[in-house]
Design goal:
Mean pLDDT: 90
Strand content: 15-25%
Low-confidence stretches: 1-31
CATH architecture of the largest domain: Roll
Number of helices: 20
Distance between the termini: 47 Å
CATH superfamily of the largest domain: Dipeptide-binding Protein, Domain 3
Shape: globular
Length: 586
């Protein structure tokens, strides 16, 4: 698990959407001045291909170039039509299976000016369902789409036929990045397969030469680092490794004709958006105060609360914003490792975390203790769950009961496992350039030592950190899950099916929890889903596959020269909608 897409209902759902600019029907004149926005990123994106990338930055950058059928309104935070002409017409068949009918806007075109049609939507879904495309974590979210029927009289109108009910289908059916086949499949290899075949015969098709050929091309370095094409307002310009990724506003973009439709089409827009990679926080803060970057998030809490307010270079030029962060941080444990397979051990470790120290010394009061996989603002949040306590005596008792005892007096607990004495020595990793997580690891290292557990803290480069989790190559780590403002699917993170083909890196789950998740996903009535959500949260809370740490506030800095504000949705701002403040347009 990582600071990425986490528990997502996909792409736009983990993107933070707020546009402080023209709303629907605004008559405010556009500013003709060209201007750019420079935003700091901790690292380069993994990819220019959202289906292949597994980090949050890949989501942010691809979504300014590749739009979906629907998006989230910048003011109401409700779904609105974007590439689609309207929200889908939802019909329930006699067999209880839903159908979703969409019509694409007449104005909507690809980068080359060709119209977007139902066939393009079908292609985009086919790519996800291609069994050889490297998108295992995303594919289950679209398993419910059985086929797409395109209107014979209108190529822009189509109906998605579902093979079964799916509780988030009303928005997932339109919330995925649209891909131009002419760019990503010039040989039209995917035309050889129907969507229905890909849905029901995936295993048999996996060895088809055309399936493999397309996937090899789609997964290749070309579409990871060089090519990004879609129908959004921005065009990928260039990527300077470990320096920046640059996007430029398209001339005569089709959405400019719809500026008064909703916030997604609002004008003016920055002529250029730059994602500046600065791995070191101190260097990034200096760049911020030196006006070399315009936007920064996740600023170190101490610097944000104590240092920046005293610096006129910052206060004269930047606004602070601290909306709630829909995320939680945790210590993850590898449950397949015999050190952590015993629930008593996991509970003991939870009692060895000094939560107050983390909240006060790491977050400087900008966080509260987390108890669940859902944020307290979520309508399905189980508010009966209790917080863990810091109690070394209780931890020692549980470890003794679990058979971890210091038998040789060296200060480290040990236990016989498979006929061999194993010392309780372990590792805890965090991602490079994250001083907050480093502090949390060091606090855990000290408190675990008090109970006879030796911990080595590992600082890992971001891509290595993610890859190790994906391959279950870890013992413990400090990670985080970002949550959307809408309901999301827990299967990828908590179902056992997600162990090798999803985000269940910890290896948690039982037949009972799997059935609970499966039943939840089929229930279309929100009120009837609530008991499922409450029980799932309770099961996770009581079994301790993770140690819940904190849920915090965002720490944003946005240049005063822009008319823009923060939001609860990640990354905390909507760069496409930044406009110059009135004082900068004179």
């Amino acid at each position: 698990m990582k600071c990425k897409i986490l528990s997502i209902s996909l792409f736009s759902l983990i993107v933070s959407i707020f546009i402080s600019c023209n709303g629907s029907g605004s008559s405010e004149p556009e500013v003709s001045v060209d201007y750019k926005v420079i935003e700091r990123e901790l690292s380069d994106p993994q990819s220019l291909n959202l289906l292949n990338g597994q980090d949050e930055m890949t989501t942010y950058i691809t979504y300014i170039a590749q739009w979906s059928l629907i998006g989230i309104d910048p003011k109401t935070l409700e779904f609105v039509p974007t590439v689609a002409k309207s929200m889908p017409l939802i019909e329930m068949g006699d067999d209880g299976r839903p159908k979703f009918t969409y019509e694409i806007r007449e104005e909507a075109t690809w980068d080359d000016g060709s119209p977007i049609t139902g066939k393009d939507i079908e292609f985009s879904i086919k790519v996800i369902k291609n069994p050889k495309v490297d998108c295992e974590r995303i594919r289950p979210y679209f398993d419910f789409i059985q086929e797409i029927i395109i209107d014979e009289n209108n190529p822009k109108k189509f109906t998605m036929i579902c093979k079964e009910p799916y509780f988030i289908a009303p928005h997932t059916s339109g919330d995925f990045n649209l891909l131009p086949q002419g760019v990503y499949d010039p040989e039209k290899l995917m035309d050889k397969f129907s969507l229905k075949d890909l849905t029901f015969n995936s295993d048999q098709l996996a060895e088809d030469p055309n399936i493999i050929k397309f996937a090899d091309q789609f997964n290749s370095a070309k579409f990871q680092k060089e090519v990004l094409s879609g129908c959004g307002p921005y065009q990928f310009d260039h990527w300077e490794t470990n320096q920046r990724v640059v996007f430029k506003k398209k001339a005569n973009w089709w959405g400019d004709k719809l500026a008064n439709e909703n916030g997604w089409f609002a004008s003016p827009r920055p002529s250029e958006i730059v994602f500046e990679t600065i791995t070191d926080d101190a260097t990034a803060i200096n760049a911020l105060k030196g006006l070399q970057i315009d936007v920064m998030r996740s600023i170190d809490p101490k610097i944000y609360m104590e240092d920046l307010p005293k610096d006129s270079k910052f206060t004269d030029n930047f606004n602070k914003s601290t909306p709630a962060m829909l995320a939680y941080e945790y210590i993850g444990m590898n449950l397949k490792n015999p050190k952590f397979s015993d629930r008593k051990v996991r509970i003991a470790l939870a009692h060895l975390v000094d939560y107050d120290a983390i909240i006060n010394n790491v977050w400087f009061g900008m966080a509260e203790q987390a108890t669940s996989t859902l944020h307290p603002t979520n309508v399905f949040y189980n508010d009966t769950l209790t917080s863990n306590t810091y109690d070394v005596a209780k931890a020692n008792k549980l470890l003794d009961e679990a058979g971890w005892i210091d038998t040789d007096g060296d200060g480290i607990r040990d236990k016989m496992i498979s006929g061999k004495k194993v010392q309780f020595k372990t590792t805890i990793s965090y991602n490079q350039g994250n001083p907050r997580r480093e502090k949390a690891c060091l606090l855990a290292q000290e408190s675990f030592r008090q109970a006879g557990i030796e911990v080595e803290v590992l600082n890992q480069e971001w891509s290595v950190f993610l890859e190790n989790q994906k391959n279950h190559n870890f013992e413990m780590f400090v990670g985080g899950w970002i949550q959307p403002t809408v309901e999301s699917d827990p299967k990828q993170i908590w179902h056992t099916d997600g162990y090798n083909n999803g985000d269940n890196y910890l290896g948690w789950g039982t037949a009972e929890s799997d059935k609970l998740i499966d039943d939840l996903r089929l229930e279309m009535d929100a009120e009837k889903r609530k008991p499922y959500w409450w029980k799932l949260q309770a099961m996770i809370h009581d079994d301790y596959p993770v140690i819940f740490l904190t849920t915090a506030k965002q720490r944003l800095a946005i240049a005063k020269k822009f008319d823009a504000e923060g939001t609860v949705m990640r990354p905390g701002y909507w760069l496409q909608g930044f406009k110059l403040a009135a004082s900068n347009t004179q």
